[in-house]
Design goal:
Elements: H1 2-67, H2 73-79, H3 84-91, E1 96-97, E2 106-107, H4 110-117, H5 123-130, H6 146-155
Antiparallel strand pairs: 1-2
Helix pairs in contact: 1-3
């Protein structure tokens, strides 16, 4: 009965794959566990490097803001210089890196690390805002309730 259900839902190829896995799983599991450990170490390696890069950005931004308190965001970003080679050399203990939820690893190189960590253009701004440096926006005002604003837009009612 199980074979019929497998063949109906998965087809003949799916049935053969499932039967192969059920017969030889004790050979496959050690490789899967070893690869999982390999991915975990690679992910931890990337997190260490990323943590140091974030700390370097924060420290440089604080130093620049002490020297020039009325600097704008673009000039601040231009002045931040990250020593990629030094950080990779001192904080990488494994020759591979991987995202947390990724199933593939890449070699630890200058270009790969820079592309993965700084994939977003607003990464520096995000790091600074998370650590309490938010001098680039105008002073915050009372936030609008977006739900009522949307309802008012639909009903074309003017706010008082």
């Amino acid at each position: 009965m199980t074979n019929i259900w497998l063949e109906v839902f998965l087809g003949k190829i799916g049935k053969y794959i499932i039967s192969f896995l059920s017969r030889y799983y004790y050979f496959i599991i050690p490789f899967a566990i070893a690869y999982g450990i390999f991915l975990a170490i690679s992910s931890y390696n990337l997190k260490r490097i990323e943590k140091k890069v974030n700390l370097e950005i924060l420290n440089q931004a604080k130093g620049i803001l002490k020297k020039v308190p009325d600097i704008n965001y673009v000039d601040l970003v231009d002045r931040i210089k990250i020593p990629w080679k030094k950080i990779i050399k001192t904080y990488s203990f494994f020759p591979y890196i991987s995202h947390e939820s990724d199933l593939w690893v890449t070699r630890t190189s200058l270009m790969d690390v820079r592309d993965i960590i700084m994939h977003n253009d607003k990464k520096i701004k995000l790091i600074l805002e998370r650590n309490g440096i938010n001098i680039f926006e105008k002073k915050s005002t009372v936030r609008k309730n977006l739900y009522t604003e949307y309802i008012h837009r639909i009903t074309r009612r003017k706010e008082k």
